[in-house]
Automatic annotation (TrEMBL):
Belongs to the FPP/GGPP synthase family. SUPFAM superfamilies: Terpenoid synthases. It holds the Pfam family polyprenyl_synt. It comes from Plantibacter flavus. InterPro entries: Isoprenoid_synthase_dom_sf, Polyprenyl_synt, Polyprenyl_synt_CS. It comes from the Bacteria. GO terms for biological process: isoprenoid biosynthetic process. GO terms for molecular function: metal ion binding; prenyltransferase activity. This is Geranylgeranyl diphosphate synthase type I. Keywords: Magnesium, Metal-binding, Transferase. The keyword Metal-binding applies. PROSITE patterns: POLYPRENYL_SYNTHASE_1, POLYPRENYL_SYNTHASE_2. Its cofactor is Mg(2+). The keyword Iron does not apply.
Amino acid sequence: MIESNELATLVGRGLSDFLSSRSSIVAQIGPELSPFLDFSREFLSGGKRFRAQFCFRGWQAVSTGRHASGQGGLETVIATCGALELFHAAALVHDDIIDNSDTRRGAPSAHVSFAELHRRSRWDGDPTTFGTGAATLLGDLLLGWSDELLDDGLDQLDDRTAARAARAEFNRMRTEVTAGQYLDILEERAWRDAADDEQRRRAERVLIFKSAKYSIESPLALGALLGGGNEQQLASLRGYGLPLGIAFQLRDDLLGVYGDPAVTGKPSGDDLREGKRTILIALTREALQPGARAILDELLGDPDLDDDQIGLLQATIRDSGAVDQVEKLIQDHVARALSALGEAPINDDARAHLRGLAVAVARRET
């Protein structure tokens, strides 16, 4: 039985080998491209690898002897785990550009790193423009590499029907995430177009398609499809994965407002400066009187908010009862996920791992 730490090692080794194979192509073009390669390796060397964990446990949950031991079984699922990590890295690079986030995991974001390279090198032009352009291309490269690694893995799989189904799931995930990202930036700017009683529904739609499905549901489904899962198994895993993905993002929304920078690697209240129209904010607005709601709307999204203003917003949100409501939503969604898991016709070892993952993603501090 492969445990979580061993899986992380296998995925990390697979990513390292894949990056080495692609790096040799890039290196032949010229030494100036070494920052691309260095940042890719550094960015992909860490992280919690939740998506890889869920993909592998989805495969383990349904795998028959034929799928587990046949040609490409384990090799394919490890490659797919790596493809998900590459896809996630690409999404984070692009997300940091869109949100003007200076840090990621306690280190400079990609666009900030490239801007600093420009400054140190004393090149012509604007460092910020260069950093944004270079990071955009890095994100595009990582996105393309995620497709290549997935195809490498699927090519090893005997079951071509399973391979085609997994490819279709990955393609749908990619489209949904992009659509969700657009809805996210749209809500930051067009939220006034929606009635107050529509704010929560629209925030939930962003949460589901930008994060919840691709963080947990799709990785689970990808693994189960590779393992030859039947319709009942897939439906059960999705019934576990989507509510848990919602809980995952709700926790992330709380961390974006109240997280400790020393733990999260991002400034406290970062989501407030970015103007994220989350369920937390929607619930806060529902509870506030018109005057207080107007102040919240005026301050939210100001990139120059100082610590006192951040503290005021944090207190307003907490005093409104919205934090307690979100904590209750997290508990309810985790309970729904665990209920679906308990009834799922899957391998008991995988069920135990998935139960532990549910606790980990709902209670995490980063």
